[in-house]
Amino acid sequence: MDLERLAGVIRDARARIEAASDLDELSAAESETLGRRSEIAVARSGIGRLAPDRRRDVGRAINEAVGTLTAAVEDRRSALQAEAENVLLEQDRIDLTLPYGRPARGTHHLLTRTMEDVCDVFRAIGYEVAEGPELELAWYNFDALNTPPTHPSRFESDTMYVEPFDDRERSGPDELLLRTQTSPMQARFMEKNPPPVYVVVPGRVFRTDTWDATHSPVFHQIEGLAVDSDITFGDLKGTLAYFAREFFGVSARTRFVPHFFPFTEPSAEMLVWFNDEWLEMLGCGMVDPNVFEAVGYDPAEVTGFAFGMGVERLAMVRHGITDIRHFYDSDLRVLGQFR
Question: Which of 328, 310, 61 is nearest to 202 (CA)?
Fold first, then answer.
């Protein structure tokens, strides 16, 4: 290969190297211009057949060409690698000036919010909020509330009794059970607090109910108690009518129908006119004098009323929920509707 031809090969090779758009094309160009079958490699293998006076000049020229093209390949490879890294960096770049995606904030469960809403209504008119134990004595759950030993609610078919923690036999008033209502706090609160008493008690209760669309063996109640020197049934009706308007809206109307509860006399159920129908909402009545005597109050000096409502029932009516099991399924599709 003469020197003029070698110069042309170098020009074409440099152009091919510089035109490579990625590392694969560059590798192909390097193989064609510097590989074992390239023109330069063929020319180098033929140096020994040249005349002695030309070998030195041609050999020097070929070596310089190899060095030039090798440097060109390395320069182009460095440039392509830098471009690839810049592309990756741009793809991974985080713009710290943009607002970042914040995770959705949690919220209270609908039942918790319902209990808080009810308690807030009564706090606004001077009631105190109290809590009591879920593991209760039969005395507070039944006897102190004027419930006789033969009452059906005391049967194991209705109440979950608990074995004592020691070897002693417990029966009668000392029996341990999971409270069937939040009403035991009536007796507990009055034992520790002289009248007047205005208190609401939210909490979880337990009964041997069958699991279905409207029943659960574990649910929530809110008990209310008002005791003072001259409380009447009219005070009871006015207080609960106020609650209904605050909770269900100003158009809510109430109706009271006679009923029976062991710890109130007279007793009633309150119905609320909501969504164009009368709905049973809670039980209530004037505190039975026997309950006052059980806790050391003088029935001749005080009167009072009590009421109890199911939290699940309130939430289902207020929000149009038809199956109580939705509250306990932890299904975010359901719970997310009530954020």
Answer: 310
Amino acid at 121: V
Identify which of 235, 290, 219 has the alpha carbon closest to the alpha carbon of residue 261: 290
Residue 176: exposed, middle, or buried by beta-carbon count in 10 A (0-12, 13-18, 19+)?
A: middle
d(CA 230, CA 239): 15
Q: Is the dihedral of CA 224, 227, 233, 238 positive or negative?
A: negative
Give the N- to C-terminal CA distance of the chain in Å, as an integer.
84
C-alpha pair distances (Å), 272 with each of 81, 253, 257: 76, 6, 11
Residue type, 79: A
pLDDT digits (tens, 9 = 90+) for 289-306: 999 999 999 999 999 999
Q: Which of 208, 212, 182, 202 is nearest to 324 (CA)?
A: 212
Cβ burial, residue 257 (10 Å; 0-12/13-18/19+)? exposed
pLDDT digits (tens, 9 = 90+) for 164-196: 766 555 667 788 999 999 999 999 999 999 999
CB 207 within 8 A of CB 180: yes
Largest CA distance in the chain: 140
